[in-house]
Amino acid sequence: MCGATVGGLSTEGIDVAKETVIQGSVTKGGTPVSGGYVRLLDAGGDFTAEVVTSATGQFRFFAAPGQWTLRVLSPGGRGESTVTAVDGQVTETDIALTS
Amino acid sequence: MMSRTDVLVETDWAANHLQTPGVVFVEVDEDVSAYDTGHIPGAVRVDWREDLQDPVRRDFVDQAGLEQLLSEKGITGDDTVVLYGGNNNWFAAYAYWYFKVYGHDDVRLLDGGRKKWELESRPLTTDVPARPRTYYRAKPARTDIRAFRDEVIAAIGEQNLIDVRSPDEFSGKLLAPAHLPQEQSQRAGHIPTARNIPWSKAANDDGTFKSDDELTALYEGAGVELGKDTIAYCRIGERSAHTWFVLHELLGQPNVKNYDGSWTEYGSLVGVPVEKGA
Fold first, then answer.
1. Is there a contact between B178 and A14 if contact means CB atoms under 8 Å apart?
2. How large is the C-alpha radius of gyration of chain B?
């Protein structure tokens, strides 16, 4: 499918060319973390959105082009990642939690 | 003057009152599958869309509709209703405001909502409680905490208008929160003279509300004259219910209204002024 990264969340049904997608997975020790809270913070560090990871530890945001920080909270630990999103593309990021 | 504990309960309090007669926990979500995957033991479910919105007109259900809903859920007017949900209590706060519109006396939010409960690894169950049907009587809808479009237009430059969406929605870069698809038809931007104070600034990472002192500093620091009449809005009225809760219930501000039509209504009106940019 257009824009989908091998192994990433399927983008079927989404018109990727019109969206700025940030998606990825959360793991701890190589194991997917489900039910983790992923917070999307803008370049100024302000909160923009939050989703909960799926049963397979995956998440997705529809953002705008630019730099974003993803912060994960879960009972098993915390993690953070910074990405640069591009219009019409799917930006993939995988976040490993530390206790 | 109400105190914070009259309107807000901590997770410890909730854990100690799961079996208390007269205390009813209600989970309110946009994603109703969340309840099925596990909820606070004893909690009943309210579906923000199916249960609280009119199925035909754009409005929330009327007094008779609420009476029927709460009767089916086994809730009485004397119960302490504790609301919680996902999305940092957005829809729980919306339901709280809605319970207040229809005059329920003792309704409270679980501070931190479902997220804090989960982050503390507290128990969740898939058991659905059986509550006997009641005969719930609501009061006529209050209009002093709900704003309609004409009074919003009249409030431009006159009252505090607080746009609680994210900065990118306020400036017109996005039409919806970033976890939702963006396709929509209405114009982007904000109501002139509105100040952008995202709802999230009132909350900590774990979803709990900030202290009264921090909240007062937040709004005054952003140029809001507390004590003056205030209207809060967002996209569909749920995040602004969160801010309405902060201003009216936590800070005790006297005249604060939630504009539940919010940007999806205002941004589609013909001829009204719209501003873009930060």
1. no
2. 18
What is the set of domains in chain B, with CATH numbers? 4-119 (3.40.250.10), 149-266 (3.40.250.10)
Q: What is the ipTM of this complex?
A: 0.79
Cβ neighbours around B211 below 10 Å, total = 12
Task: Identify the architecture of domain A16-96 in CATH.
Answer: Sandwich (2.60)
Interface check A73 vs B, CB under 8 A: yes
Cβ atoms within 10 A of the Cβ of B76, count?
15
Pairwise CA distance, residues B177 & A48, whole Å: 7
Q: Which of A52, A60, A80 is nearest to A14 (CA)?
A: A60
Rounded Cα gap, residues B165 and B148, in angstroms: 18
Q: How many CB atoms lie within 10 A of CB B51?
A: 20
CB nearest to A63's CB, from B178, B183, B206 = B178
In this complex, is the C-beta atom of A65 within 8 Å of any C-beta atom belonging to chain B? no
**Closest-CA residue to B111 (of B33, B39, B179, B15):** B15
How many angstroms from the chain centroid is the CA of residue B112? 13
Q: Does A92 touch chain B (CB under 8 A)?
A: no
Can you tell me the distance from the alpha carbon of B111 to that of B173, in angstroms, rounded to the nearest whole number?
31
Mean pLDDT over B166-171 rounds to: 88
Q: What is the pLDDT of residues B127-137, one digit of tens each?
A: 999 999 999 99
Supply the mean pLDDT for chain B.
93
